[in-house]
Design a protein that fits this description.
2 copies of one chain form a homodimer. Chain A contains 8 helices and 12 strands. The two termini of chain A are about 40 Å apart. The mean pLDDT of chain A is about 85. The first copy, chain A, folds into 2 domains: about 1-120, Rossmann fold; about 125-220, Winged helix-like DNA-binding domain superfamily/Winged helix DNA-binding domain (Arc Repressor Mutant, subunit A, Orthogonal Bundle), CATH 1.10.10.10. With about 220 residues, chain A is of the alpha/beta class. Chain A is elongated, with a radius of gyration of 23 Å. In chain A, the strands form 3 sheets. The first copy, chain A, has a 5-stranded parallel sheet, sandwiched between helices. The first copy, chain A, has a 4-stranded antiparallel sheet with strand order 6-7-8-9, with helices on one face. Chain A has helices at about 10-20, 35-45, 60-70, 80-90, 105-120, 150-165, 170-180, 185-205, and strands at about 1-5, 25-30, 45-50, 75-80, 95-100, 125-130, 130-135, 140-145, 145-150, 170, 210-215, 215-220. The interface of A and B includes residues 19, 25, 26, 116 and 147 of A. Chain B binds a DNA duplex (30 and 30 nucleotides) through α8.
Chain lengths: ~220, ~220
DNA sequence: AGCTCCCTGCACAAATTCTGCACAACCCAT
DNA sequence: ATGGGTTGTGCAGAATTTGTGCAGGGAGCT
């Protein structure tokens, strides 16, 4: 989980960073609104901790601009109570706020709560094609409801194929996607995994799910039924 | 609502006591760290007001010890600004702090805020999955109602896993979450704790609660029944 | 000081998965 | 039909990942 921390006060920035890093998050910092927007685009954080009282482009403005292009959860840091009213009044789509001074524990608790909510919202990690269901987070695959025990590599192959159903994926593409690009694994190796994967699918009665297109590549088949 | 006030200065103790009593709280006092711990155990206060600069066992130490067995909210009283850094930096789990000199009104306001928050957090501190119940506040775990004696690390692991049931948590993620990020604990160490945790679960008949997904991580299992 | 409990991590064993060779089977254009 | 290129299969050693026995060190309690 990556978190973008935006505050102009270096001490507070450090405090928050250290706290969050201890809590197991990856942290990126920005010291003003402009930088915040740049980083938000480039780093695609999972959450933004945003100070309201930024110089120049203030926090509320940054929030509005962020919301224009992303649904990233936002947690505001506010110094004074009257700032809270502005946040609430403006309905900017902030997810929560914490008033300074705050305790690290509190901050982490709030962040966890937000992330939990937003991950509950976005259960879109499940790929589905025909009777095959692939849950990336749980590393689990079900066929007609029955769980399939796949190894990491097998699952990786299946995911690639399911990401573009009905489209043909070439072998080099697959290999690049599974191992990094420019890896030197033999073509036969891919075949081995492919075989195991097919065998496991076949045990559930879907042996023909992955079809070979000779000389071109592989694809998650056009479903028979 | 019962509040424990810990300070070695009798005048300040009285001031705080009277202020709080006027605000409608029941007050218990202690003049040193040792006494504070004793009272905290016996009286189970709803909040502790703790002076940082105590003789002998200092406030930070008291806080740490309290945290070892309870989640009671803690409000620090600090004399100097540099003490604040220590509180925040150490991430002891304090909920707020007030610098001396402070106004009685300020103190009461902070206390109200903390109590409000902690009651709002309220009953959501219990994680449950299958027959396993984890009560973060009480540091206790029950399986089919039977209490399980877990060490701090074991509990930490279990909590991480239960926070995202059915999802896989990688070993690095677990290690980052339990110790700070970027810590250098051996992989085997995690295994050791894991083994102990599993053994204890097995004694209650749920040895398979935590399953291993080879090469990926661990997960709080898909429940058998 | 002595005792207990917990954390940490080494050395080794066990389990699981990955890789790729040798060869057979297959597809398609000529 | 035939030959060259492509894909599937049996198999086994290599490599990685995970589990276990065990022990030293340190914190806390009496």
């Amino acid at each position: 989980m990556k978190i973008l921390v935006v505050d102009d006060d270096p001490r507070l920035r450090d405090l928050v960073s250290i706290t969050l890093e201890r809590a197991g998050y990856q942290v990126v910092t920005a010291r003003d609104g402009q930088m915040a927007l740049t980083h938000a685009m480039r780093e695609t954080p999972d959450l933004v901790v945003l100070d309201v009282g930024l110089p120049e482009l203030d926090g509320l403005e940054v929030c509005r601009k962020l919301r224009a292009r992303s649904d990233v959860p936002i947690l505001f840091l506010t110094a004074r109570d009257d700032e809270i009213d502005r946040i609430l009044g403006l309905e900017l789509g902030a997810d929560d706020y914490v008033t300074k001074p705050f305790s690290p524990r509190e901050l982490v608790a709030r962040i966890k709560a937000i992330l939990k909510r937003s991950s509950a919202r976005g259960t879109a990690t499940v790929l589905r094609y025909g009777p095959v269901e692939l849950d990336a987070a749980g590393h689990s695959v079900r066929v007609d409801g029955a769980a399939l025990a796949l190894t990491a590599t097998e699952l990786s192959i299946l995911r690639q194929l399911m990401q573009t159903p009905e489209a043909i994926v070439s072998r080099p593409q697959l290999i690049d996607a599974i191992y990094g690009a420019g890896s030197a694994v033999a073509d036969r190796t891919l075949d081995s995994h492919l075989r195991n994967l097919r065998r496991k699918l076949a045990e559930q009665g879907w042996g023909s799910a992955i079809e070979t297109v000779h000389g071109i590549g592989l694809r998650m088949g056009t479903w028979p039924g």
